[in-house]
């Protein structure tokens, strides 16, 4: 009788339309800094997978589905890489279309004035393990103007899958390295 549930699970899993994506190669600095911010346990639903593209956008486009807490990088042939993300808290969320204006490894963080006003304890920081921007940042612009929103890593990986940021899209550090390696400056980002 135990064999029936095992066969049923195997049949169900064969219908799954996703597969894991290998981790990117890391530099010595990445490895050292990331070891200081170990990944929290998280729902496997927010792991990085190759999936059938649900967005129907053109290849190279980044699509953030805020309600799903998922980011998709559209690939050719109807595929996409799906990543779990933290999105903006309801009061700070945003949507629209932007362009990746620049990219940075272990970026410095300069909190905007409105954030400092809300949280006077925050201050600028150099890149590193304690920095809220994490391992990489993709800076978003709208018609050449900085939106002040970023897609970036995090020093709070336990919040992946939540609406907990001040509007930025946060990713696990290993995932933002993977995205950073795949997305060029000039790529379109759609936040829905």
Automatic annotation (TrEMBL):
Region forming the signal peptide: 1-20
Cross-referenced Gene3D superfamilies: L,D-transpeptidase catalytic domain-like
Catalytic residues in the record: 152, 168
Positions of transmembrane segments: none
Top-level division of the source organism's lineage: Bacteria
InterPro entries the UniProt entry points to: LD-transpeptidase (IPR050979), LD_TPept_cat_dom (IPR005490), Transpep_catalytic_dom (IPR038063)
Coiled-coil region: none
UniProt-recorded name of the protein: L,D-TPase catalytic domain-containing protein
UniProt organism field: Methylobacterium trifolii
């Amino acid at each position: 009788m135990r064999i029936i549930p095992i066969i049923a699970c195997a049949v169900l899993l064969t219908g799954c339309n996703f597969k894991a994506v290998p981790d990117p190669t890391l530099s010595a600095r990445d490895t050292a800094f990331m070891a200081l911010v170990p990944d929290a346990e998280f729902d496997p639903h927010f792991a990085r997978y190759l999936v059938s593209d649900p967005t129907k956008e053109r290849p190279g486009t980044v699509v953030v589905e805020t309600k799903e807490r998922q980011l998709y990088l559209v690939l050719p042939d109807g595929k996409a890489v799906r990543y779990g993300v933290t999105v903006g808290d309801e009061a700070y969320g945003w949507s629209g279309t932007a362009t990746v204006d620049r990219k940075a490894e272990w970026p410095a963080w300069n909190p905007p004035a409105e954030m400092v006003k809300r949280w006077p304890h925050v201050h600028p920081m150099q890149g590193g393990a304690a920095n809220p921007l994490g391992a990489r940042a993709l800076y978003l612009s709208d018609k050449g103007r900085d939106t002040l929103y970023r897609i970036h890593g995090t020093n709070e990986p336990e919040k992946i899958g939540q609406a907990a940021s001040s509007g930025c899209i946060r990713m696990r550090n290993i995932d933002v390295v993977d995205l950073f390696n795949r997305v060029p400056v000039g790529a379109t980002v759609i936040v829905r």
